[in-house]
TrEMBL record:
This is Sigma-54 dependent transcriptional regulator. The keyword Chloroplast does not apply. Gene3D superfamilies: 1.10.8.60, Homeodomain-like, P-loop containing nucleotide triphosphate hydrolases. Residues 99-328 form the Sigma-54 factor interaction domain. SMART domains: AAA (SM00382). The keyword RNA-binding does not apply. It comes from Paraburkholderia sejongensis. Keywords: ATP-binding, DNA-binding, Nucleotide-binding, Transcription, Transcription regulation. Residues 424-451 are annotated as: Disordered. It holds the Pfam family AAA_lid_14. PANTHER family: TRANSCRIPTIONAL REGULATORY PROTEIN. InterPro entries: AAA+_ATPase (IPR003593), AAA_lid_NorR (IPR058031), Homeodomain-like_sf (IPR009057), P-loop_NTPase (IPR027417), Sigma_54_int (IPR002078), Sigma_54_int_dom_ATP-bd_1 (IPR025662), Sigma_54_int_dom_ATP-bd_2 (IPR025943), Sigma_54_int_dom_CS (IPR025944).
Length: 451
């Protein structure tokens, strides 16, 4: 399947999956309006097409996850490469629930999640907004013994204080004005499953006392009732605040903090795992293409440079939103003008990201604070140097990847990965007649992704 698709699609196999998804979508829309089939048959076929589409999405995801590690890569202290660790997780049938990326700190979090999942120990996940805390909670649920039981999510920050107790524990009819019926709370709904207490740092002190009691006794009381109800619920809590600090300040009970954080996972902000940005761009571009039923959007070099250097205060959610936005607004090729206005730099500003150029008069440079830390700036500069080097090399060999690999003494698949990382297409460096330069009888680039 991949072979056939590779001839029509010019980039990675995951993009080919997007092509396949596109075809399934076309099939679905044709089916939907079919005049020759009975409604029941149409529905049945649509259901099958939908599950096929989901399967392809999964495959695409899995493939990317493994592929990203293909080339030579640094080993960690234990002498294991990232790819090996990720593949080990896959081999153990770990369920990622759409978590994507191969940054060392993310892998560590996933490995902790894997170990914690089958236990009933409480887990506390912290990290900035949009770093994937809820996703991680779902990963823990999906890999545990309760995966076929309910996963109930409660946003402690979104419920008014006076309703919180009833929301969590339920109430009896007449317990307060407006309580016109008996009602069960989230803890009872999550019985035998997992309750996800999001924004736990916002839980008022009174609620904290009650939660502590549940953690100790595994029993709840509906508001207005004396009856104790046993609940068997696994607790996963998340916060973007520093609970330890809040507890030192007396705003969060220390005993509850220790109870909740038996297993503590901290998700790093995206700007501290920049190595994942190229992969996430490709992944979300692909995902957005699937959702929007379009071909994956291509990025101009200056948009790409911007996306690689931007600081992402909204973390992965922000990157995902940006990819959906540009996939929706742009035609074949997206550029900086498709970015949201509040982060959109002017042309000079983009140059400033990479080369610290002084903008032309009258144009507003983007502030350094919006962009990145000094270490990020250094990394971006080193990325730029790498890209410029590869571009020059490709020009010299007229786009023959095998030849370039030989000249710079680099493993070909590693070189392919670097080209992909920088969005470089060897065919853009071919001679005018579209042929790679001839370096001998056997110099065809069999593994050239563009080939
Ligand atoms: N590693 C990842 N791979 C793929 N998608 C991710 C990853 N991490 C987060 N996402 C996606 O980013 C978005 C934000 O993730 P999530 O809602 O889990 O973040 P959060 O930490 O709970 O944010 P908040 O603090 O704002 O509630 C979701 O769409 C999620 O699917
Ligand atoms: Mg969240």
């Amino acid at each position: 399947m991949m072979k056939i698709l590779d001839q029509t699609e010019e980039t990675s196999p995951a993009i080919s999956y997007a092509g396949l998804i596109e075809r399934i979508e076309i099939l679905r829309s044709t089916l939907r309006w079919s005049s020759r089939l009975e409604r029941a048959d149409i529905d049945k076929l649509l259901r099958q097409a939908t599950s096929l589409r989901d399967e392809v999405m999964q495959l695409s995801h899995k493939e990317r996850f493994v592929q990203a590690a293909s080339a030579a890569e640094p080993q960690d202290a234990a002498g294991q490469s990232r790819g090996a660790r990720r593949k080990a997780l896959l081999d153990r049938s770990f369920i990622f629930e759409g978590t994507f990326g191969d940054n060392l700190r993310l892998l560590e979090s996933l490995e902790i999640a894997e170990k914690a999942a089958p236990t009933d120990l409480p887990v506390l996940i912290d990290g900035e907004s949009g770093t994937g805390k809820e996703l991680m909670a779902k990963v823990i649920h999906a890999n545990g013994a309760r995966s076929d039981k309910p996963f109930i999510s409660v946003n402690c920050g979104a419920i008014p204080d006076n309703l919180l107790e009833s929301e969590l524990f339920g109430h009896r009819k007449g317990a307060f004005t407006g309580a016109s019926n008996d009602r069960k709370g989230k803890f009872e709904s999550a019985h035998t499953g997992t309750i996800f207490l999001d924004e736990i740092g916002e839980l008022p002190l009174a609620g904290q006392v009650k939660l502590l009691r549940v953690l100790e006794s595994h029993e709840i009381q509906r508001v207005g009732s004396d009856e104790m109800i046993a609940v068997d619920t696994r607790i996963v809590a998340a916060t973007n605040r520093n609970l330890r600090q809040l507890s030192e300040e007396g705003k969060f009970r220390e005993d509850l903090f220790y109870r909740l954080s038996v297993i503590h996972v901290t998700l790093p902000p995206l700007r501290e795992r920049r190595d994942e940005i190229p992969l996430l761009i490709a992944w979300f571009g692909d995902e957005a293409a699937g959702t929007l039923k379009r071909r994956p959007v291509r990025l101009t070099p200056r948009l790409r440079d911007f996306l690689l250097a931007y600081a992402y205060p909204g973390n992965i959610r922000e990157l995902r939103n940006v990819m959906y936005r540009i996939s929706c607004l742009a035609g074949e090729m997206a550029d900086v003008e498709h970015l949201p206005l509040d982060i959109r730099p002017n042309a000079a500003g983009v140059a400033g990201v990479a080369g610290a150029n002084v903008p032309a008069s009258g144009e507003q440079p983007i502030s350094v604070a919006n962009l990145m830390s000094l270490s990020d700036a250094k990394r971006a500069a080193s990325d730029d140097a790498e890209k410029a080097f590869l571009e020059r090399g490709l020009r010299e060999v007229s786009g023959t990847v095998a030849e370039l690999a030989r000249r710079i003494d680099m493993n070909r698949s590693h070189l392919q990965m670097l080209l992909k990382k920088h969005g470089l297409h060897s065919k853009d460096f071919r001679n005018r007649n579209g042929q790679p330069a001839k370096y001998g009888a056997n110099e065809r680039d069999e593994d050239d992704a563009e080939g």
